[in-house]
Amino acid sequence: MVVKFLWLWRLLAYMSILIITPLVGVWSVSKPLSLYLAFPPIPSPNQSLPFSWITFLSIAIPVVICVTPFVVRIILSNIRFEIKRQIDHSFPLWGWLGVVIILIFWIITWNRFSLFESFQKFTFTPLWVGYILVVNALTFRRSGCCSLLDRTSYFLFLFPVSAIFWWGFEYINRFVENWYYVGISEFDPWSYFFFATLPFATVLPAVLSTAEWLSTFPRLSAGLDRFPGLTITVPRMWAWSLIIVSVTGLIALVVWPGQLFCLVWIVPLMLICGLQLLTEKPPLINDITAGDWRQIWRLALAGLVCGIFWEMWNAYSLAHWKYSVPYVQRFKIFEMPLIGYAGYLPFGIICGLFADLIMTPAKCRSQS
């Protein structure tokens, strides 16, 4: 019984730490809670922290250092893929339905047709439902299977879990205000919660479906199954260390939001790993301890791919988000500062780890 509900304990522990710890930070600096608990959130972009090359490079250089070994390994890989006769799977009808949904709602999203004025602000969810259908259809086209068909219960379970997952990030953002929303001023609290939850529920299905599709392209992760492994000798010590560092990071994030804004994407990663290591090694960590970094790489790429679509479709939406990231608010692609796209790499990994935190499915035949 304990094992059966282990995922629920992990989820409750994760959300409890995520919610309570920043409030400790607020208390420690004697700030009023009302600044952070107003709902819906009141947009308050930060205009006082100008662009800094030092900050920009302090983020860009570590990202390049982390990514370069993977890219070099893939390029220089001497792996000889066995040549197999391509099995021709037809693109399914429901995939074409996804294409139609994307085309219709993309046009509506980027235009201001009076006929569709009443739901102009609600196009993001159908766009991502269409995307999820298409990317699963592409996976099926290449491999003959996909999560939507082969792991349907798990796939559907991802939607409510995804909503909880992204609301956690929305909560953390209240303390740093890296992004804010415009075009939502007329929503009352319940309407805001409902209409925000719908697109939030598509995050995990989109990222994990994209990672599964990328797994059908072996060359994208060539050689990463024989990469240096990560040694974890005392899992419980690592677990408590990660949790303590995460708690400390969440408090520090509230105290110094302008300087530590990057922790929004780092702390959840450490916290999720710590909670899983308390009971067992996460499957993704088992992979990298064995020197297999393929799925981590695919998740990072999947986060970046989805990030590009998120930013692109957001750019001309009626209800959309904007950024006020301290010190790096320059070189924008759509609404996102260039360096901000680096955050989608760890975010993709966080999505995979969070899914494993809740439920680990058997792999589809396309994954290797």
Using the CA coordinates, give the radius of gyration. 21 Å
Biggest sheet character: 2 strands, antiparallel
- State the separation between the terminal residues, measured CA to CA: 32 Å
Gross geometry: globular
List the strand order in the largest sheet. 1-2
N-to-C order of helices and strands: HHHHHHHEHHHHHHEEEH
Rounded mean pLDDT score: 87
Structure write-up:
With 368 residues, the protein is mainly alpha-helical. The protein has one domain. The protein is built from 14 helices and 4 strands. The protein has a two-stranded antiparallel sheet. It has a two-stranded antiparallel sheet with strand order 3-4. The longest helix is centred in the N-terminal third of the chain and has 24 residues, at 53-76. The two termini are 32 Å apart.
Question: How would you summarize this macromolecular structure in one to three sentences?
Answer:
The protein is mainly alpha-helical. Helices cover 59% and strands 3% of the residues. It is globular, with a radius of gyration of 21 Å.
Write the layout of secondary structure elements.
Elements: H1 6-28, H2 34-37, H3 53-76, H4 93-109, H5 124-143, H6 147-150, H7 152-173, E1 179-182, H8 189-200, H9 203-214, H10 235-255, H11 263-277, H12 283-289, H13 294-315, E2 320-323, E3 332-333, E4 336-337, H14 344-358
Antiparallel strand pairs: 1-2, 3-4
Helix pairs in contact: 1-10, 1-11, 4-5, 5-9, 7-8, 9-13, 9-14, 10-11, 11-14, 13-14
Keywords:
single chain, 368 residues, mainly alpha, two-stranded antiparallel ribbon, 3% strand
